[in-house]
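Let us work through a complete example step by step.
Step 1: write down the sequence.
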Amino acid sequence: MDIEVRIRGVMMDPATNMPIVVLKDVASETVMPIWVGIFEANAIAIEIEKMAAPRPLTHDLARNLIYNLNACLDHVVITELRENTFLAVLWLKQGDDLITVDARPSDAIAMALRADCPIFVAEEVMAAAKLNTAGPAEGPTAEQLRNWLEGLNDEDLGHYKM
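Step 2: predict the structure and record it as tokens.
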């Protein structure tokens, strides 16, 4: 079963200075961090802030391609956590056909924001990420990080500035 999540925030990990996308289960207080690259975090933050670029960025181009091929992005799923790497799938709908496309979670999230479609996490991924928060090896323990993430408020997350 997949769990619907929303983006709780995009922030910098204070221990490693790497961007984190914090996903929150819509039905509970459970949060799941995903460490992403700076460019991917920027693509997500740009869409959250609804900033317009003078020319289409990569995720805008992909959205336009999907639309112009008479398809739509139905939803995205973070499907797997393998060796501390999250995997995701885009679910495209074209006519009566559902098509899956492999994607990095950061790209899937950026696309979901642009398509205004739901983001899901596989139940086993959420359970594994809760128990074994997959971040950089150095820094706080998984339990310390989980407690810190669950205690964040809107001021802590800021306004998605990178």
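Step 3: interpret the result. The domain at 2-134+142-152 is CATH 3.10.690.10 (Bifunctional nuclease domain).
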